Amino acid sequence: MAEVEVGKIRRKPLTAIVLSLIMPGLGHIYCGRIVKGIILAFLSSIFIPVIFGALSVSHSSVRIAVIITALFASIVIWLIAVIDSWYTAKHTTDSYILKDYNKWYVYIILILMSTGNSTQIAFNVRSTLVEAFRVPVASNYPTIVPGDRILANKLAYKNSDPQRGDLIVFLNPENRRINFLKRVVAIAGDTVEIKDGELYVNDQKLPRRKLPPSTLADIRAEI
């Protein structure tokens, strides 16, 4: 029977793949390639803020190009990490000497650090860049129907003011745990009046298109 010296354990390709899927670079650290593992982990972590940062770009073509490029690059880095860690583990000999960091608790700590970093990035993105909402009511039907999901760009008015016709999300002044989604009908300096159920802005009646009863009957919303 072949004997394996204490501190010498062959690296398992399947384990390297699983660790790389959980966190790019971790499979390389498992195989003793700590420098390459750290580089891959760093490269994979930079694309999330790049993608969300692109949401604040005003030009849609640039925004889409940056997001697609970042997503593609992220997938490529992930595939490289998985395939290369499998190859590295497969070609590691039985004489591989365990490193100080080849401990299960070290892997868990690294995973938790990566998860915590991603959570912090997501929190920062949600509070400063963009936030997702699900619309439960039909106040903006048919532009937005109940159940629609939207992304609110929190940098949209960083360098400009809301304009008539914009759809904006804002906090309910009386209950700041509730968000409102409304369309801007007037801006600073405008005069707003309601006469006989009609809305007037600067003495001009805003046009309104009535929906057929059959369309309105399809609306189901919880308020």
Count of domains: 2
* Largest pleated sheet: 3 strands, antiparallel
N-to-C CA distance: 72 Å
What portion of residues is helical? 40-55%
**Low-pLDDT segments:** 1-5, 215-223
**What percent strand?**
15-25%
Instruction: Tell me the structural class.
Output: alpha+beta
Q: Quickly count the helices.
A: 7
Shape: elongated
Major β-sheet strand ordering: 5-6-7
* Whole-angstrom Rg: 27 Å
Mean pLDDT: 82
Order of helices and strands: HHHHHHEEEEEEEH
Number of strands: 7
Quickly list its features:
223 residues; alpha+beta; Umud Fragment, subunit A; 2 domains; three-stranded antiparallel sheet
What features would you describe in this structure?
- The protein has 223 residues and is an alpha+beta fold.
- It has 2 domains: 13-128, no CATH class; 131-216, Umud Fragment, subunit A (Ribbon), CATH 2.10.109.
- The protein has helices at residues 13-22, 26-30, 34-45, 47-54, 60-90, 104-128, 213-216; strands at 130-134, 149-153, 167-172, 175-183, 192-195, 198-201, 204-205.
- Strands 5-6-7 form a 3-stranded antiparallel beta sheet, with no helix packed on it.
- Strand 6 (198-201) and strand 7 form a beta hairpin.
- Helix 1 (13-22) runs antiparallel to helix 5 (60-90) and helix 3 runs antiparallel to helix 5.
- The longest helix has 31 residues, at 60-90.
- The protein is elongated, with a radius of gyration of 27 Å.
- Residues 1-5 and 215-223 have low confidence and may be disordered.
